[in-house]
TrEMBL record:
Quaternary structure annotation from Swiss-Prot or TrEMBL: The complex is composed of two ATP-binding proteins (PotA), two transmembrane proteins (PotB and PotC) and a solute-binding protein (PotD).
Lineage: Bacteria, Pseudomonadati, Pseudomonadota, Betaproteobacteria, Burkholderiales
Annotated EC: 7.6.2.11
GO MF entries: ABC-type polyamine transporter activity; ATP binding; ATP hydrolysis activity
One Gene Ontology biological process: putrescine transport
Pfam families the UniProt entry points to: ABC_tran (PF00005), TOBE_2 (PF08402)
Spans through the membrane: none
The protein's name in its UniProt record: Spermidine/putrescine import ATP-binding protein PotA
Length: 365
């Protein structure tokens, strides 16, 4: 497909400085038409700064922004036709839900009949038809946030920018609204650019995730690819739990790289062309099996350890296992289901962890 039509928005080499501080560092990112793109990263990583640059409220220090191939770097926010939803709902407290959603249309002189039709259609989309007459204070936080979404979408923007819209809500409400947001996105088909610092939220909602750290774009891909094939230790550890072992990569053996973790030999999936030497071998906890006796399956990586912590979590128990030697210490996390034989063992029980080499990733240390 032609990249100009496929990419609705292109940020090209965007840097934003505040004095000598670099809030965004040479970020290039494409937003594809109709996708749900999530900007994910720790607090202070530059997510809001990028969203504000896309919206036009902040100017980049260098770099350019294109909308469907047209340079809009200097175009004011009101001429971009992007909708915005912020963390605080900022609804008009004295106006009904209906009037809150209708407000912008009234300013734009959309006539009353068309206004009514568009507002009611939008309230139906966000599931608030029965609440049209209420004031914001009569609504729950989640309902207020849905009003904010309706208010942003009623203009039929080309792009909806959302900055941590769910982070003020409690866990249940947040999960409910995530499902709602996904449904709304599918129903209206508008491109969403969504900011969050919540990894699970990003995994649950996104077509693609862009991961930021210290102003830099670390990786952008589908949730599955980023989770299964993180490009760096930072990304792997930021998105989900990951166990890492110091690893001295020594030789290639078919599809695997063979190396040492202290005095143990381990194997990892080879990365084509990667250099040997000091690395980390990373494994997701769900790819590891916990044994109460030395396992016998051949061809698997096996590491012995001692349980140092148990956290009961209902259907599962989270274990922390100290593995390795003083020379190559590692702290490994793994969950076991209720009734696992390890639960019959004492506090500092000796255990073994095994996993298939194909599930180990080699990352730079
Ligand atoms: N107007 C500003 N003046 C100075 N520093 C700023 C300004 N806006 C943001 N920053 C800094 O830029 C960095 C990125 O901020 P921000 O984009 O808000 O991060 P995030 O949304 O990922 O938490 C932070 O360290 C923040 O303090
Ligand atoms: Mg922010």
């Amino acid at each position: 497909m032609d990249t100009l039509t496929q990419n609705q928005l292109c940020a090209d080499g965007i840097t934003r400085r505040y004095g000598s501080f670099v809030a965004l560092d040479n970020v290039s990112i494409d937003v594809r038409k109709g996708e749900f793109l999530t900007l994910l990263g720790p607090s202070g990583s530059g997510k809001t700064t990028l969203l504000m640059i896309l919206a036009g409220f902040t100017e980049p220090s260098t770099g350019r922004l294109f909308k469907e191939g047209v340079d809009i770097t200097r175009r004011p926010p009101e001429k971009r036709n992007f909708g915005m939803v912020f963390q605080g709902y900022a609804l008009f407290p004295h106006m009904s839900v209906f009037d809150n959603v209708a407000f912008g249309l009234r300013i734009r002189k959309v006539d009353a009949a068309a206004r009514r039709q568009r507002v009611m259609r939008m309230l139906e989309t966000v599931g608030l038809t029965a609440h049209a007459h209420k004031r914001p204070h009569e609504l729950s936080g989640g309902q207020q946030q849905r009003v904010a979404i309706a208010r942003a979408l009623v203009f039929e923007p080309d792009l909806l920018l959302l900055d941590e819209p769910l982070s003020a809500l409690d866990k249940n409400m947040r999960e409910q609204l995530q499902a709602e947001l996904r449904r709304i996105h599918q129903q209206v088909g508008t491109t969403f650019v969504f900011v969050t610092h919540d990894q699970e939220e990003a995994l649950a909602l996104s077509t693609r995730i862009a991961i930021f750290n210290k102003g830099q774009l670390m990786q952008i891909d589908t949730p599955e690819q980023i989770y299964m094939r993180p490009a760096s230790r930072f990304v792997g550890e930021f998105l989900g739990k990951m166990n890492v072992f110091g690893f001295d990569a020594q030789r290639e053996d078919g599809a695997h790289t063979v190396g040492r973790h202290g005095d143990i030999v381990l194997r990892a999936l080879s990365c084509a062309g990667a250099a040997l030497g000091a690395k980390v071998l990373a494994v997701r906890p769900e790819h590891m099996t916990l044994h109460v006796e030395p396992p016998r399956e051949s061809g698997h990586n096996v590491v012995a350890g001692t349980i140092v912590e148990r956290t009961f979590q209902g259907s599962r128990t989270a274990l922390a296992v100290r593995t390795g030697s003083d020379a190559a210490p590692a702290h490994t996390l793994i969950d076991v289901p209720l009734g696992h034989p390890v639960q019959a063992l004492g506090r500092e029980a000796r255990v073994w962890l095994s996993w298939c080499p194909s599930n180990s990733m080699l990352l730079d240390a």
